[in-house]
Amino acid sequence: MDRLLFITTLIAIALILTVLISLRRAHIRAEYSVSWLAAAVILLVLAQAPGLLGRFASWVGIEDLPTALLFLVTGVFLAVFYRFSIIISHLRDANIALAQRVAILEFRLENVEDGRL
Amino acid sequence: MTHTAPVHPLLEDGRALILVPAYNEEQAIGPLIDEVYSLFGKIPILIIDDGSHDSTAAIAKGRGARVMRLPHHLGLGGALQAGYRLAFELGFEFVVRIDGDGQHDPAFVTAMLDAVSRPGVQMAIGSRFLHTGGGYTSVSRGLGIRLFRTFLRPILGKPVLDPTSGYVAVNREALEVFSRSFPLEYPEIEALVVLRRRAFQFVEVPVSIRPRLAGRSTITALKSVYYIVHVMLGVLVNILIFDRRRWR
Ligand SMILES: Nc1nc2c(ncn2[C@@H]2O[C@H](COP(=O)(O)OP(=O)(O)O)[C@@H](O)[C@H]2O)c(=O)[nH]1
Ligand SMILES: [Mg+2]
């Protein structure tokens, strides 16, 4: 268990560092880094405070601490992915509207002489 | 095989537009445009090229049709909506959609326009099952259609024979709705539900569906299950909350 918590700590720190480096290099926008940072911090706190993890484990009814940790990690990342699905959907909507508008404007520019078809 | 369709007055005065979605249809699009012009003369026809990788756009332009090119591939619904938007902004009163693969015999455009210019009718669907001898369809498509008929009957409040038909005519009221919100993938059935939810009326018109002139249908047997689930989900979402963001 100690080993698992240690590895979890490492992963959380690696995640935080990766996100911060990406932010510095402008590979990720600040607003989209928040989900990852929040997820990493949750992992870090739980790995550093096994008492908290134990309370969570008994609350969800999982006796085995590693299983509880895995359960929690899955939940946290599902939330992150779901948030990204929503963001992607918004982006796709905006992108489609933009592409349609570009096509319409381009068409009207090319056919400016007659105005109609 | 030559048709002698009388030119519809709506086409003659430029109040109606023929809208043709095309994605990699370089083999079929030329003959289709020629066929339309030989039937009706030089009437408004707009090809929407959805980022084809072949020479669809160049061939269509070469035959004298107007072509709207999307900056990148959007899929059938997104491409059609772009066409409906343009048609609406240009002031067209009627739009008949026919497929760019040559499966829809353009001779039926006249009957479609007749149907959709009747008072109280906002949409006409070209139905292969009303036309004797025109019922060309694949086995999996046939099964899907039967499933959708049963599913749609209570939702639409009346039977529809050919709900997946892409041979569709709309009047300006429906055109306005489509220009604002149109489903993005596999749009035919969802579009029908959208209009019915606004208490719009549709009629079915017999048309003959021909085998493809070239290429393959994008609806393969493998994709059919995805198609069916996708469409049913879309319809259900539409019933729960209609006109939400997903539609754009
Ligand atoms: N704009 C656009 N048109 C498409 C796309 N896929 C198919 N089409 C067009 O939609 C029409 C119907 O497609 P098809 O594959 O023949 O479907 P089916 O006739 O229902 O089996 C044809 O005119 C195609 O060129 C797409 O992704 N984007
Ligand atoms: Mg086809």
List the helices and strands and how they pair.
The complex is a heterodimer of chains A (117) and B (248).
Chain A: H1 2-24, H2 30-48, H3 50-60, H4 65-110
Helix pairs in contact in A: 1-2, 2-4, 3-4
Chain B: H1 9-12, E1 16-22, H2 29-40, E2 45-49, H3 56-62, E3 66-69, H4 76-89, E4 94-97, H5 109-116, E5 123-127, H6 139-156, E6 168-171, H7 172-180, H8 187-197, E7 202-206, H9 221-240
Parallel strand pairs in B: 1-2, 1-4, 2-3, 5-7
Antiparallel strand pairs in B: 4-6, 5-6
Helix pairs in contact in B: 4-7, 6-8, 6-9, 8-9
The structure holds guanosine-5'-diphosphate and magnesium ion.
How would you describe this structure to a colleague?
The complex is a heterodimer of chains A (117) and B (248). The mean pLDDT of chain A is 89. Chain A has helices spanning 2-24, 30-48, 50-60, 65-110. Chain A is built from four helices and no strands. In chain A, helix 1 runs antiparallel to helix 2 (30-48), helix 2 (30-48) runs antiparallel to helix 4 and helix 3 (50-60) packs across helix 4. By secondary structure, chain A is mainly α. Chain A has one domain (2-113). Chain A is elongated, with a radius of gyration of 23 Å. The relative contact order of chain A is 0.10. Chain B is an alpha/beta fold. Chain B has a single domain, classed as Spore Coat Polysaccharide Biosynthesis Protein SpsA, Chain A, CATH 3.90.550.10. Helix content of chain B is 42%, strand content 14%. Chain B contains nine helices and seven strands, in the order αβαβαβαβαβαβααβα. Chain B has helices at residues 9-12, 29-40, 56-62, 76-89, 109-116, 139-156, 172-180, 187-197, 221-240, and strands at 16-22, 45-49, 66-69, 94-97, 123-127, 168-171, 202-206. Chain B has a seven-stranded mixed beta sheet, sandwiched between helices. In chain B, helix 2 links the parallel strand 1 and strand 2 (45-49). In chain B, helix 4 (76-89) packs across helix 7 (172-180), helix 6 runs parallel beside helix 8 (187-197) and helix 6 (139-156) runs parallel beside helix 9. Chain B starts with 8 loop residues before the first helix and ends in an 8-residue tail after the last helix. The model of chain B has no long low-confidence stretch (mean pLDDT 88). Classes of the chains: A mainly alpha (117), B alpha/beta (248). Chain A binds chain B through residues 89-90, 93, 96-97, 99-100, 102-104, 106-108, 111, 115-117, and chain B through 14, 17, 44-46, 48, 66, 68-72, 74, 78, 81-82, 85-86, 89-91, 184, 245-246, 248. The structure holds guanosine-5'-diphosphate and magnesium ion (MG). Magnesium ion binds next to loops of chain B.
